[in-house]
Amino acid sequence: MKYVVMLCDGMADLPIPELGGKTPMEAANKPNMDKMAAVGEVGLVKTVDDGMKPGSDVANLSVLGYDPVKYYSGRSPLEAVSIGVDMKESDVSFRCNLVTLSDEPDYRDKTMVDYCSDDISTAEAAKLIETLAEHFNSEEFQLYSGVSYRHCLIWNGGTTDVGTLTPPHDITGKPIKNYLSDSPNAAKLLDMMIKSYDILKDHPVNLARIKAGKRPANSMWLWGEGVKKPLSSFKDKYGLKGSMISAVDLLKGIGHLSGMKVIEVEGATGYIDTNFEGKAQACINELKNGQDFVYIHVEAPDECGHRHEMENKVRSIELIDEKILGPVMKALDEMGDYKILVCPDHPTPISLMTHTNKPVPYLIYHKQEQKQGVDCLCEKAAEKTGIFITKGCTLMDRFIKG
C-alpha cells in the first residue's frame, strides 16, 4: 500500500461575491480532486484547536498526526532545524521576515506594506541577512539565512516571555505601532528591528530592487518564538517510510524532526510560480524507490490568500490538481493499491488575508474501497456529509489505519 498526502496550504476559504458566491475550491476546475471526492470520504476536520494560533506550524503538525498541545513550542524552531541550526536547550529561535515598511521617520509610525518584500529572491535576501549579521551577531544573538523572505534569529539564553509578536502577514496594510511588543523582555528585539531599517533602506540590494520597480526589503520583523522540542519518529508511529516534499523551511523542519526523508525540488518557491511538475515527479520517484508515504506540501494557495489574489488562488488549486495530482495518480495506478489524502492545513480567506482556525474540508480516497461521495471537494459539500473530526491529529490515524 502506498500513501500520499496532498497538503494544499490555506486552500479553504469563504464565499466570494466576485466568484458568484463560491469559494476558490468550488470555483476551481479540479477534475482529479472531484473524481476522488465522488467515490471517497469527504468531511470536515478541525486542524487547529481553539485557543491555539491558526498557523501552518500547528496545523501541519496536526495533519501529520502530532498533537500540537504536546509537540508545539513555536514556529521558528521547526524552521531552524531545516536551516541547519543546532539549537541548544537554552536557545530561543525567532522567525525573521524581511519585510517592506513605509517610510515615515519614526519606526512606530510605519505601515506594513508587504510581509514578503515582493517575494525577494533567496540570493538577494542572503546578502541582506549577511549585512544584518555583521551588525547584530554576538555571543547572544545569531542570524541565519533561509529561503526568500524567511530567516531565523537565535537568542542564546533567551526567553519566550516577550509579549505578543504578531506575524507580519496578519497586518498587511496596517500601522505597526499597535503590533510592537511593549514587554521589557522584547526590548532588545525591538531595538534590532528599528536599527535594521536604517541599515537596510539604502543597501545596494534594495536600491537595485527599487530601480527595477520592486519593493525593498527594508526591515527585519521578528516573531514565531519557540524552543526546540523533539518529535517522535513518523516511522515508529505508523510503520511507514516517509518523505517530505516542500519549498518552505517549516515543513522541511517537521520532516527532519520526524525522521522523514526531506526532498529538495529545484525551482520550488512557495508561490504560484513553483515547480509543480517537479514536486509531482519527486513524489513518484520516492514511491518507486521504496518509500511508503509521501507528504506533498504546496504553499501557493496560502500565499495567494495573504496577498488578496483571488484569481491566482483559484488557479493555484487548478495547477495542483492538474500538474501534481494527475501525474501522481497515474503513477500510483501502476503500483497497486493506494490511498490519497487531500486537505488544506487551515483556511486563508481572501477577504481576511490571514489564517483562521475554522474546520477545513478533507478527502480520503482509497483505490480499492469505493464509497458514495460528493460531487465537489469543497467547504459546502464537506459540511453536508455530516462527518466532522474534532481533533485534527487523529486524521492521520483515520487515513492510514481506516
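The record above closes out task 2.4. Task 2.5 opens with a second protein, given below.
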Amino acid sequence: MGEIRVVVCGACGRMGQTVVKAVGEAPDLILVGGVDVPANAGREIAPGLRCRADLEATLRETQAQVMVDFTQPEAVMSNIRTALACGVAPVVGTTGLTEEEVAEVARLCEEHSVPAVIAPNFSLGAVLMMRFACEAAKYFDTAEIVELHHNRKKDAPSGTALRTAQLMREARGCDFRGPEVAETETLPSVRGGEMGGIRLHSVRLPGLMAHQEILFGGEGQILTLRHDSLTRESFIPGVLLAIRSVWNRPGLTYGLEQLLEA
C-alpha cells in the first residue's frame, strides 16, 4: 500500500517516544501525528510535529492509516473504538485488556471492515519463548510462570504471561497437573494466580524492564525458558512488522506469532 501514514497514541510516554523515533526513521512509514493526554498537548515529538490531545481529529485530519497505541489500560478501549470508527487500523501494545474487550474489538473490526493487531508482547524473542513453551507443554505435566516488570506497570499478571499460559494449555490439550498435596497459604496469594493448572507470579521492581521465566517440572529435572527485554527497542521490530502487516489481514489478529507464521 505504499508509504503508511501512522499516528502514535501515547506519543509522549517512554514506549511512545521509542515508537515515534522508529516510525520517523523507517523509509516506508510516515509519522503524521502523535496524541497524548492534554497536559502534553503542544509538545514537540519530532521536528515540526507537535503532540495533540484530540485523537479523532488527529486521525481524520492527518488521513492516518494506522494508529499505534501504547497508553494505559483505562484508555486503550476508547482509543481503539475511535480508530476503528475513523477507518484507521489499530496496532495495540497496551496490555490489560479483558477477554470481553478483545471480543468487542473483534466484533468492531468486522462491523467497520477495518483490521487490528493486538499483541501482549511485540518482542520477537518473547514470541519465540512462547512457541518453545508450547512444545515443552506437551511433555511436562507441571509448570509455573514468573513474570518481572518495572514498578510502573499497572496490570498483573502481564499480558505476556496470560498469553503464554493460554497457548501452553491449548498446546497440551488439557490442564496442567496441580499440587499433589493440599496447600495451606500462611500468607494469602503467596502461591500466585492460577490458569489451567499453571501458577503465575508477578514481580514489580524499579530497575526491571520486561522479563519472563517459564519453569517446567519433571521427575528429577527442571526445564527453564527465559526471555529478557533489556530496552524498549527490543519491541520495535515487532511493532514495525505489525504496522506493515495489519492491512494485509482482515479482522482482529491477536498475538504477534500469527504475523510471524503468515
